[in-house]
Amino acid sequence: MDVKDIFDFLKSLHLEYRVVGKGNFALNGVCALNQLHNESLTWIRNPDMEKITGIEQYHNMCVILPGTKLPNTIHNIYIFVENPHSAFFEIVNSFFAKRQEKGQYIENDSVVLSSCIGKNVSVGHHCYTGKDVILGDDVVIEHNVILEGSVEIGARSTIESGVVIGLCGFGHYKDTNNVFRRIPHLGGVIIGEDVYIGANSTVARGTIANTIIEDHVKIDARCHIAHNDIIKRGVMITGGVGIAGSVTVEEDAWIGPNSTINNGLIIGRNSFVGIASVVTKNVPEGKAVFGVPARIVKDNTPNVYTT
């Protein structure tokens, strides 16, 4: 591809952009700011003169960035857009990402007892899928995944290796003899469409209701979603997060790495939980919280904290 292809692509997305620099040349790949190389596409979140000067040591570079001042003399192409993060990865996804069409297959060493399997579903090595599981079209189940009990996974969702969904959660009560007994888990897990669940994460089934993960939720590796949680549309949950039982995370919230959320809380829409925070109170809509315990520090501005 060449630089002109990027211009045409941005136009097709109806994205406004401004170009500084002249010429049209081939782009042979993408690169990060700390590993620059010639004839490549890159992007800058927070531009400064030092970064621009570094890029100008290379030739035939195309850079996606927000509005900023440039040196008087430049020899690369700079494309200014409102959201360089989104624009860059739209380009990468369309021109550079290698897609592997898996098609319909179930590895021979996996056990699939369910008969409710959609079209073009792939199941990797050493998986177990119980008889009550429902898999929508184009679902990808990677290796060593366990799906047990009443689990429904919507179309185009991806479950990475080592994930366990539908296990009983951690819940106990004391009987009349003052002995702990396990709470029965009668519910299931409902996962929407276009959901991503990262490696070695766990999702517990509900006790007397379902655990629900709505459409377009993205969950990083090593996360735990406890029984009765409701994770609403578009939520981003990053690595190592633990969410205790009966929590509701409202639409488009962002949960930072290694954060912990206490049981029964509501995390408001468009809110942000900072890295390694311990949330012990409800988080209002549109607020950013940080710390142990987490406290409100400011309003959350979309695309400021998120990556």
UniProtKB/TrEMBL annotation:
GO terms for cellular component: membrane. Pfam families: Hexapep, Hexapep_2. SUPFAM superfamilies: Trimeric LpxA-like enzymes. PROSITE patterns: HEXAPEP_TRANSFERASES (PS00101). Gene3D superfamilies: Hexapeptide repeat proteins (2.160.10.10), MurE/MurF, N-terminal domain (3.40.1390.10). Keywords: Acyltransferase, Lipid A biosynthesis, Lipid biosynthesis, Lipid metabolism, Repeat, Transferase. One of its GO terms (biological process) is lipid A biosynthetic process. InterPro entries: Hexapep, Hexapep_transf_CS, LpxD, Trimer_LpxA-like_sf. GO terms for molecular function: N-acyltransferase activity. CDD domains: LbH_LpxD. PANTHER family: UDP-3-O-ACYLGLUCOSAMINE N-ACYLTRANSFERASE (PTHR43378), UDP-3-O-ACYLGLUCOSAMINE N-ACYLTRANSFERASE 1, MITOCHONDRIAL-RELATED (PTHR43378:SF2). This is UDP-3-O-(3-hydroxymyristoyl)glucosamine N-acyltransferase.
